[in-house]
Amino acid sequence: MFDYLIVGAGFAGSVLAERLASQMNRSVLLCDKRPHIGGNAYDCYDDAGILIHKYGPHIFHTASPRIFRYLSQFTGWRPYEHHVLAHVDGKLVPFPINVDTVNALYGTSYSPAEVEAFFARVAEPIKHCRTSEDAVVSKVGRELYEKFFRNYTRKQWGLDPSELDAAVASRVPARTNHDSRYFTDEFQAMPLRGYTRMFENMLDHKNIRVLLNTDYREFMNEVSFREMIYTGPVDAFFDFRYGKLPYRSIEFKFDTHDREVFQPNAVINYPNEHDYTRITEFKYLTGQEHPKTSVVYEFPRDEGDPYYPVPRPENGELYRKYKALAEATPNVRFVGRLATYRYYNMDQVVGQALATFDQIREATLDGAAVTVAA
Length: 374
Description:
Largest sheet: 7 strands, mixed
Radius of gyration: 22 Å
Oligomer: single chain
CATH class of the domain at 1-37 and 203-246 and 310-374: Alpha Beta
EC number: 5.4.99.9
Organism: Sorangium atrum
Number of helices: 12
InterPro entries: UDP-GALP_mutase, UDP-GalPyranose_mutase_C
Keywords: FAD, Flavoprotein, Isomerase
CATH architecture of the domain at 1-37 and 203-246 and 310-374: 3-Layer(aba) Sandwich
Mean pLDDT: 95
GO molecular function, one term: UDP-galactopyranose mutase activity
């Protein structure tokens, strides 16, 4: 008899397994249908001996001291601030758009105040931003929208920005300073020995048993457990009762080059040319020294592993039907990106898992108090 069956060994499932095992002495059976732990953050060494991220680049950043302290129990850190270049008009320019981006594109020498005035001149006034197109043109105008956002979004989502929620574009703001960092969170770093090693340390506990290459449905009736924590796709849990929730997937193409450096930056976006959206060179992320280098090209697809929930109102309505089913299902908690149909960053998933653990612990303490009082 296990106290918990946890489905999915990514961040949500692994954090909850660790907390329940180490803080509440609960027995946990953690299963995943993939052959490895770590979910989409899984990293490994390729045939050339270069550490790669199998499911695309994962850059850790958070504004939460609690989340950073928690993960620091299982890994050292390599300081790393992420920078992205975009290939636009034949030039490599900083992205998100900042003062240097504008000056490089237009041959100007604007100050931060002058770039702010420039944005104010070209921005299109939109009272209520409903779509991603609205969100961008209301800040930086139509021309920069066309150069940086429209075609990239079409490739990434298979939809025009006018068909997507405003929140999609709001994740990447334009700036009126020289800050070229992609993220501005207080804590920005990469696991010193990789994500997989961090997950191994997290799950190294006598109360945790891990089953890989295993679909939970294959053994659920043969294993006894008191509660389930489910981190997989919520629509699959309910056998697609209301239909499939739409996701975008990605096809990854890896290449290794017989030279130390392939491109001048960790990530280069290609908004307007090629079928791929970006190229990532892993050694920038990991700090590994190696005479060769490996890169990955990302090709967005409709079919494949679910990565990005498609943020449209009708999809939100469909998810709410599944959410109602989830809330009415006893002894099962739904946690994580796929189970809650949200595009969370890694730290947000960790935060959600820690909050779920707090709820479990508080409910247990309240139950014990009631028992004692009775």
